[in-house]
Protein 1
Amino acid sequence: MSKKQKKTLGRIVAAGVLFVAIIAVLAFVSVPGWGELALYLVPYFVIGGDILWKALRNIVHGQVFDENFLMALATVGAIVIGEYPEAVFVMLFYQVGEFFQSWAVGKSRASIAALMDIRPDSANVERDGEVTEVDPDEVAVGETIVIRPGERVPIDGVVLEGNSSLNTAALTGEALPRDVEPGGDVISGCVNLTGLLRVRTTKEFGESTVAKILDLVENSTAKKARKEQFITRFAKWYTPAVVIGAAALAVIPSLFDGAWSKWVYQALTFLVISCPCALVISVPLSFFGGIGAESRIGVLVKGSNYLEALAKAETIVFDKTGTLTRGVFNVTAIHPEKYTEAQLLETAALAESWSSHPIARSLRDAYNHDVDDSRVGNVAEIAGRGVKADVDGVTVYVGNEKLMADCGVDWHPCHKVGTTVHVAVEGEYLGHIVISDEVKPDAAEAIRALKTAGVKRTVMLTGDAPAVGEAVGKELGLDEVHAGLLPADKVDQVEKLLEKKSPGGILCFVGDGINDAPVLSRSDVGIAMGELGSDAAIEAADVVLMDDKPSKLAQAIAVARRTVAIANQNIVFALGVKAIILLMGVMGRANMWLGVFADVGVSVIAILNATRAMKTY
Ligand code: ADP
Ligand code: MG
């Protein structure tokens, strides 16, 4: 509990005790009216002083209509018409509700803060043979850092020396540790479990995974869900409307029957009942909790609006390479037409030496020799087709049939199933390399889970050859497969799918950002793979799957749906109870006691309900 909360609790107890004592005393001793007023004013100011003060201050600042104003007006009015105990009780209970709210918000902050715990405090950097502890901000790219067992990885990098396993739970929600060895990547935020690691940094701290995640989560509440915006707008109109309604209720019937004090009392009751606290706090709190729950399963959602959209996912479009498949190709055949097999592979690997495409990475791995940079120049990546580069002074083309057609080379198809990578030099075909990718172990399960969750259409878009695309589509049980697409064709396909969906339905695109960044931003919700994905994709995406597992998607949708359901329950419940009691108030069946009791009761229940959104399964 914070200091402020403790103080509020103290005031609630003090005022409560005083209040009960006064009621007890007055039951036995008779006191003149002014004495009674003086007695009740003590607990009234103890508990309500700050609210009166806030109301006054807001009026001076021109922000008249808020909850403080409603409460101040209602209780001062009650005192004026001589209903002292009511005034104290309303303030007391209102504060109980406020206290409860601040406790709930604090609790959800704390759970996000637990996630924020991934921020590393320091880095051990090796300079001139000595290890010094510095702020992670001060470490440059390319420096060597030492990470001892039990320490958090401060900066993204590549392992130079040491074997260990990393706990990635804070980033991915995955309990299973991951093994790393020399040459492997480590990402900041993971905890080094077993061995000492020497790591060469590949990014600055500000660009490292951990800094990016913190940034995302901290800013995620800035993008409001439509429901939240509705509540804010609602409160803005609602409160003045209530005050006008109350004024009308006090004056109009009194003009007919002259029972002023009765109608003024009804009007004040009406004010108390209509306080919108429950709604104003519980809806944003639900979304806040939902984003927290998502991040704990390794899904970063960049705003409440995207959480709301995820809940309505109807069409899900996947990229193939790196998204549904591992993006790690094995070379299954090398068919040279000139050259030897080794020479063909070498030429291809050299030409691919600067590309970050999964195919390029795999060819380099298969070649498995250090590349002499001076042999390669003039590299150009041709999206959806391949690469072109000067190798040993001649221009080499490595890519698919489209690329071969572009450079006017007669290529030969391959009988082997797999992605065929053709290699050519100016005007001459050198042969092809067949590589094949594996589907991710959880991909089929992911598609099944989405169908079970009621997603209407699952689609795969790929730039790969139709035969490969169809095979993957069949294996995974996708509804539609479109293959042989260039990045621009992917956008066209998504546009078509956007037209086909039902009104209010949401189209999500899941990709790794390599050749699909334009679709990521064109779709309703762009979802990127956090690990394999390019930085640009993580930037452009609305949702990031930290551990690249497509199966997290169905879980993320479930959390989103639950969050939206909780927010809806709160809206319906709070408005429903309010409406009933307001109606009772207008008919003269409710008093202030019931009004404030209902308000606080509804707030407490709604807040408790909202905190459910924070839970993970
Ligand atoms: P996907 O849609 O499956 O992610 P891409 O759009 O990234 O595929 O690539 C489409 C096709 O273009 C690949 O299947 C490959 O034939 C060719 N291609 C793209 N980049 C390269 C590259 N760097 N080297 C070789 N071929 C490439
Ligand atoms: Mg791709």
Protein 2
Amino acid sequence: MSPKRNLTETEKLRQAMEKELSSGRYIHTLGVAYTASCLAMAHEEDMENAMIAGLLHDCAKGMHGSEQVAICEKARIHMSAVERSNPSALLHAKVGAYLAEHKYGVTQPDIINAIRYHTTGRPDMSKLEKIVYIADYIEPGRKPLADMDMIRRIAFQDLDWTLEKILANTLAYLQTTDGQIDDMTAKTYQYYKRV
Ligand code: DGI
Ligand code: FE
Ligand code: FE
């Protein structure tokens, strides 16, 4: 994708996602794309990059888990044991990053990384990575998760504080399920946790 993009290229990605995803996932995707754009406005990030990363962040979500594992094996993408056993929850982020680059023509590493780390986060995220991670949690169509009103408000004020709150809630939620915690999610929380 050339650095000088026009709306038509974003529009093409929107249309591709409309075809690729279930209607519920597509509506969530639009919510993330527009929320990420608004966060980019508030935090002086590139709005179009936020829009593209938001549109593509769940592009692999409709694939069967075994298909995602097969793509990773073929492309020699490293999978942690937890990712391998939870492909639809976790692996879709890495597969999505791969497809963004190899199927949808995204060349900017920051956009690709924002897709790659949208589920677990990672320590020392870029501003765009933080914005996409947060937009995925707060987009208007999300069911009201814990502390949602507060998290939605602080997202437009302080990205790192918002990350800490989301990560704490995600880890607390995972402890109520039998979901194993990925090392990267734990490391991200340790990094953003304020003592
Ligand atoms: O793809 P989405 O549903 O829009 O959202 P997402 O990509 O942020 O997350 C998908 C799920 O992954 C969500 O229920 C939280 C979960 N998750 C986040 N970190 C971990 C995790 N699941 C496991 N098992 N381990 C983690 O470390
Ligand atoms: Fe996702
Ligand atoms: Fe999502």
